[in-house]
Amino acid sequence: MNLTKMWVKMAVAALAVVAVSASGARAAEKLRIGTEGAYPPFNMVDSKGELQGFDVDISKALCAKMKAQCTFVKQDWDGMIPALNKRKFDAVVASMSITEERKKAVDFSERYYTNKLQFIGKKGVPLDISADGLKGKTVGAQRATISGQWLEKNRPGADIKLYDTQENAYLDLGAGRLTAILADAFVNYEWLKSDAGKDYEFKGKPVFDGDLIGIAVRKGDPLRGKLNAAIKEIVADGTYAKINAKYFPFPIY
Fold first, then answer.
1. DSSP per-residue letters across 10-74
2. Nearest to 181 by CA among 218, 139, 241, 228
């Protein structure tokens, strides 16, 4: 009888070790998140060289829900999808719009926020943002974004200049080399609050609304399902609302 009890205890102990090991393995799952670091307030680099912003905070919240250990990889926007597919990182959390063209190369999570496109230009200077009104005027946007694509399709008469980063587009607007910029309204909103943007304003109503922003993963990666579940969790438990309030006085989900 004593021998039997001893074997039972040993079996229970062994099962406990296996359970702890399995739990540790789940907790130790490692994910690499790709982001740009040049798109405030969604992703940017602080004075210490650390990646910060809405995208980064959302990523950390999702990783906590998935019990994953996440690290961040800074990547130029133009090369984001190729770098993902070359396994430089496992997911892109960089304010990437869900488009049919991109869905040919990657899978997307459900949205984690919704955006719109809106022009900005010099304060007090009337600007007709129609196709005829922008004909011959120099308008900027970031390269490989829906803003740039929208301009090329809908404002072909404008002199369109595309930039490697949104920050460089703002520099040219501030220097007087652009009449207007078309970009995500929330990114423009952040810049207009800055010292550099104080003499500029929104021009006209948004030209494209309902832009869904998702997390890109490689085709067929089961990580997509885990991210979708985690997005639902952070929205339901109030984590998302706290992060939202840190950056915007209005909801963006």
1. HHHHHHHHHHHHHHHHHHTEEEEEEE-SEETTTEEE-TTS-EESHHHHHHHHHHHHHTEEEEEEE
2. 139
Place of tokens 């359970």: 19
Q: Which bin fits 46, alpha (ψ -120 to 50), beta or left (φ > 0)?
A: beta
pLDDT tens-digit readout, 37-53: 999 999 999 999 999 99
Percent of the chain with pLDDT over 90: 88
Domains delineated in the chain: 2-114+212-247 (3.40.190.10), 115-210 (3.40.190.10)
Rg of the chain in Å (alpha carbons): 23
Tokens of 67: 């019990």
Q: Nearest CA to 224 among 52, 46, 103, 121?
A: 103
Q: Tens digit of pLDDT for each residue in 114-141?
A: 999 999 999 999 999 999 999 999 999 9
Which residues on adjacent β-strands are paired with residue 114?
Answer: 212
Distances (CA, A) of 209 to 132, 146, 183, 217, 251: 21, 12, 12, 24, 15
